[in-house]
Amino acid sequence: MTPQELRAFCLSFNAAVEDFPFSPEISVFKVQGKLFALSYLDARPLKVNLKCDPDDAIRLRGEHEGLVVPGWHMNKRHWNTVTADGGLPDRLVRELVEDSYDLVVAGLPRADRLRLDRP
C-alpha cells in the first residue's frame, strides 16, 4: 500500500477527515473528532497506528511478528502499529483500517452514530 492509497482509503469512510494536530508531517484521521488512524505518510517503511480489539491485537502481533507491533506512543492494549507497505497483504491492511474506524464509531454517542448513517 502506498501513502496515497492509505490516505485515500482512510478518507473514504463516512465523515472521515485528515487533521494535523501534532505536526504538519503526521496525518491523523478522525471521525467525529475521534482518532482512528495515525501515520507519518512520508516514512519508510510506511506505518500506521490503528485501534484494535485487545484480543485481536495480541493475535495479530503473534501472526505477523515485526509487521504488527504494539501501538507506538499509544495504549498498547488497544492500538497496534501496522507496517502498511511491507509483507502484509493490502487486503489485510484495509481490513485493519476498517476495523479501527468501526471500533471508534461504535464508541461514539448514539446521536453521533445516527448522524453518520444519514446521507
From TrEMBL:
SUPFAM superfamilies: YjbR-like. One of its GO terms (molecular function) is DNA binding. Pfam families: YjbR (PF04237). Keywords: DNA-binding. The keyword DNA-binding applies. Coiled coil: none annotated. PANTHER family: CYTOPLASMIC PROTEIN, CYTOPLASMIC PROTEIN-RELATED. This is MmcQ/YjbR family DNA-binding protein. It comes from Streptomyces violaceus. The lineage of its organism: Bacteria, Bacillati, Actinomycetota, Actinomycetes, Kitasatosporales.
